[in-house]
Design brief:
single chain; 2 domains
Amino acid sequence: MEYGKFIEIKKDAAKFMFIGKAVSDDETRYFLNFAFCAENKLISTDGRRLHMLDLGDNPYGFKDKTYYRVLKMNTKVVWFVEITSEVGQFPDTWKKVMPKGKHKTMNFIMLSSKYRVNGNYINIAKLMREIPEKFAINFSFLEDLMKNVDWKAHIFEEEKAIKFTYRDLTAVIMPLGAT
């Protein structure tokens, strides 16, 4: 593997840590083991959820159509390194995964890093009431949402993903195969 530019993020580290949490560790789908920059967005997915950060005017120096390995991440610093060797084709389906159409929107706040904490039960119960009956999501993915911020949960018709948005961040959680 060949590496290029090293990027260290200190300001806004939590936003970039959010991206790192959805990077896949599945070695059979190697191209998902990285964050990908496309259309001035930094995107990561493990196939069950997708996290995206709109880079705005991109003061960080990420290059379009380029893979980045997450080397280190915590609340104070996130390190990325550009991958200059070929690793496969990041699926263009990330655009298709973004649910569109008629939906309900509700506020959603994660109060703690673990969804099983008492303060989160009320918010999760409200979310569950809005989700169509035949729809199920992996609630552990909610732990990856930034804490104590007012996310908008966009709940679409049956069998579509739930999209969470907060400023320049987007999270899409795919439905589980429930019937």
